[in-house]
Write a structure and sequence with these properties.
The protein is α/β, with parallel strands linked by helices and 195 residues long. It has a single domain, classed as 3-Layer(aba) Sandwich (Rossmann fold), CATH 3.40.50. The protein has helices at 29-35, 54-66, 80-90, 99-108, 118-138, 160-179; strands at residues 19-23, 44-47, 72-75, 93-97, 143-149, 182-187, 190-193.
Length: 195
């Protein structure tokens, strides 16, 4: 396969948006996502991993060093939809890294304001995924690149939170892949264009 389209940039950087990038942990998804945006134009990176969490601090710093210094970044917390709406009004390029971390944060932060049963939490996750898919479709002028992990395999976890996370991440990945114009799967740093 030809690795470029005459511009010196890899062929996957020319895919149509929204671009959805999937893969296992530390397989090169985030690095590839950076390449999918133009380095010479402004961009906003919406992070979903808590920046104060020691487990994520080194990785966040590592990824920031790979990005152009002119790019901005913001932490979305659990309200990714609001962050996307705000970003799309000011930026033509937006990177969301990552959908899986957003769902994990959302699931763990479920408070007393919602039904904390398995069905209540499931309803919350489903509605938030619906909102994200809908808002991405509203901003056609913005190039969105989304990163998400592939998990699963084996028997379903017995603990509710782990089971809900795996189920809803799989469903979110399906919904986003259907809504995306381009889908890339990454193995060992090598992307395959699925769509």
């Amino acid at each position: 396969m030809n690795n470029s389209q005459g511009t010196g940039r890899p062929v996957w950087t020319h895919t149509k948006a929204p671009v959805f990038i999937l893969g296992n942990a530390h397989c090169g998804k985030s690095e590839l996502a950076i390449q999918c945006l133009r380095p010479d134009e402004p961009a906003l990176v919406i992070g979903t991993a808590p920046p104060t969490e020691p487990a994520f601090q080194a990785r966040i710093a590592e990824l920031q060093c790979m990005r152009p210094p002119t790019w901005d970044s913001v932490y979305a917390g659990t309200d990714l939809v609001a962050a996307v709406i705000h970003a799309a009004t000011d930026f033509r390029q937006v990177l969301i890294d990552s959908v899986n971390q957003w769902l994990a944060t959302l699931l763990l932060s479920c408070g007393e304001e919602i039904d904390s049963s398995e069905q209540g939490r499931s309803n919350l996750l489903t509605s938030r995924i619906d909102e994200l898919v809908k808002v991405l479709a509203q901003y056609k002028q913005t190039k969105f690149v989304l990163v998400s992990a592939e998990i699963g395999g084996g028997p379903a976890p017995s603990r509710m939170a782990e089971r809900l996370f795996r189920q809803h991440l799989g469903l979110a990945n399906q919904r986003l892949a259907q809504a995306a114009a381009s889908v890339l799967l990454v193995h060992a740093g090598i992307p395959t264009i699925l769509k």
